[in-house]
Amino acid sequence: MSSDKSHLVKGATGDWEVVIGLEVHAQVTSNSKLFSGASTEFGGAANDHVSLVDAAMPGMLPVINEECVKQAVRTGLGLKSEINLFSRFDRKNYFYPDLPQGYQISQFQYPIVGEGVVILDMKDGSTFEVGIERLHLEQDAGKSMHDQHPSYSYVDFNRTGVALMEIVSKPDIRSSEHAKAYVTKLRTILRYLGTCDGNMDQGSMRADVNVSVRRPGEELGTRTETKNVNSIRFIGQAIDHEVMRQIDVLEDGGTIDQETLLFDPKTGKTRSMRSKEEAHDYRYFPCPDLLPLEFDQAFVDELKKDLPELPDEKKERLMKDYGLNSYDAGILVADKTSSDFFEQVAKGRDAKLASNWVTNEFFGRLNKEGKTIETSPVNAEQLGGIIELISKGDISGKIAKELFEIVWEEGGDPAQIVEERDMKAVTDTGAIEAILDEIIANNPKQVEGVKEKPQLIGWFVGQVMKQTQGKADPKVVNGILKEKLGL
Ligand code: ADP
Ligand code: MG
To answer: What is the mean pLDDT of residues 450-461?
Structure first.
C-alpha cells in the first residue's frame, strides 16, 4: 500500500495522503417503525404515520420490531461482518423540535453488528477492501418545515422512529473515487439483500463524510465531518473540496479544527456547522424501557440460510458460467435487475455477444430514452432472439442493429421480422461472386489500385454491401475478393 502513490494528492510542499471514513445512514426496509406499529411509507400527508410512541406521549413504551432486527442481521451477514448475539439500546440525549422524546434510541457501546468488509471493484479491474467498523440500529428523527407559515415552523413526525442502520466504515478510504465506489457498492449490497431501498433522493440513504489529510506514513490527521450528504456525486464533491481546503490550511502553517460541516450543493463547498468546542455531550445511558437485545446463533444461521445471492458471488458466477471478464461482470452485477436480465438473454446463447449487446446497444438505448429494464419495449426474449440470429449467421451485425430498432419501435418476433422483411444475410457465395465479378469488370482503376494498396479492399466490400443493402456477410465477401484479386 505504501508503495502505491496513485492516490496521493500533490500540494505546493509535497505529497499528501487523503484519509476518509464514512458513516452511512440506511433506512431499514420494513412495514412499521423500529419501536412502534406506525407505517414507514414514504410520501404520506404530514403526521399521517404517527403512533403515540412516536409522538412520545408520556407513559408510552417502545417495543422492538423483530423484522428490523432481522434486517440488521441480514445486512451484517451481507457485509461479511461479525454478528453480536448481545447488543443494547442507549439513549442519546439532545433537544430538537423534530425529536419529541428528547432523546434518540440508538446503540452506542454494544452495536448489533461488528467488524466486516466491503470489496470495491475499481474501473481498472483491481479490487480494494474497505473495513466495516460496526453497524448499529437507531431511530430516525422527524422533519422540521420552515416554509409553511411566515412566522411558525411546523414538524412532520412521519419519519420519527423509522429504523435506521448506521454503517460505519474504518478510515480505509483514500480518495473521492473510492468513497463513491464504496457507497455505490454498499447500496448495491443493501438492494440485493432487500434491507434498504437505497433511494438517496428520498433520503433512504445518506452519509456523514469524515475527511483528513496527512503526509504519507504519518499519524492520522485531524478530521472534519460533513453531515448528511445525500447523493453519491455530492459525496465526491464534498471530499474533493475538503481535501483541497485542508491542504491549503496546513501548507499555510495552520491547523485543522475538528469541525462538523455542511455541504452546500449550490456552491460545491463545505461550511462550518459547529466546532468541537460546541460539540454535543449526548449523555448516553442504557435505555431503561428496553431489555438488551439477545438472540442465539440458530436465529442468525436461519437468516443466513435464506440470504439471496449477493453481488460478489454473482460476479464470480457470471465470470465462471458465461466466461465474462471481471469488468463486464462487475458492470452487470452492480444492478440486480440488469444482471438478471443479462442471464435471461445469455442462457444457452453466445454469452460474450449477449454481454456486448446488453451493456452497449441495449443499455445505451435505455439511457438515451430515459427508460429502465422494466419499461423497456424490448424484452429479454426478443433481445435473445436477435442474438441467436447473429450467432447463426442469419444476419450481420449491421442488420442486427436495424432489426433491434424495428423491434424497439414496433415490437414483434425478431426471426419472423427477418423472414418477412427479407433481411437474411446473403451467404450464398454464388450470388456474392456474381455481384463481385460485375464490380471488378466495371472498375478497372480500383482493381489496379488495390493491388498496390491492399487497404482499398474496403471500397469493394462497401460496394457489395450497397448492392445487398448490407446483407452480405463481410467475412465471406473479403474471402472471395482476396481470391479473385489475387491478394
Ligand atoms: P465518532 O463516533 O465520534 O463520529 P468514530 O471514531 O466512530 O467517531 O469515527 C467516525 C468515522 O470517522 C468513522 O467512519 C471513521 O472511520 C472515521 N475517522 C476516524 N478518524 C478519522 C480520521 N483521522 N480521518 C478520516 N476519517 C476518520
Ligand atoms: Mg460521527
So the answer is: 86
Expressed in angstroms and rounded, the spacing between residue 487 Cα and the centre of ligand 2 is 72
- Confirm if 376 and 368 have CB atoms less than 8 A apart: no
Amino acid at 376: S
Atom 24 of ligand 1, residue of closest alpha carbon? 212
Among 211, 227, 222, 213, which residue's Cα sits nearest to residue 260? Answer: 227
What pLDDT score was predicted for residue 276? 66
Distance of CA 365 to the CA centre of its chain: 20
The rounded Å distance from CA 23 to ligand 2 centre is: 7
Whole-number percent of the chain with pLDDT over 70: 98
What are the residues facing 91 on neighbouring strands? 105, 285
Ligand 1-lining residues (CB < 6 angstroms):
19-23, 168-171, 210-212, 220-221, 223
Which residue, among 204, 201, 220, has the nearest Cα to 212 in the 3D structure?
A: 220
303 C-alpha to ligand 2 centroid (Å): 29
- For ligand 2, the distance from its centroid to the CA atom of residue 106, given in whole angstroms, is 13
Domain ranges of the chain: 5-303, 309-420, 429-485
**Interatomic CA distance for residues 118 and 341, integer angstroms:** 25
Single out the residue of 184, 198, 179 nearest to residue 237, CA to CA. 179
Torsion-angle region of 192 (φ positive above 0: left; ψ -120 to 50: alpha; else: beta): alpha
pTM equals: 0.86
pLDDT for 454: 82
The answer to whether 197 and 165 are in contact (CB under 8 A) is no
**Three cell numbers written together for 390:** 447473429
Which ligand number lies closest to the CA of residue 111? Answer: 1
Residue 398: the pLDDT is 84
222 CA: nearest ligand 1 atom: 23
Give, in words, the CATH class of 429-485.
mainly alpha
In the predicted model, is pLDDT for residue 281 greater than 90? no
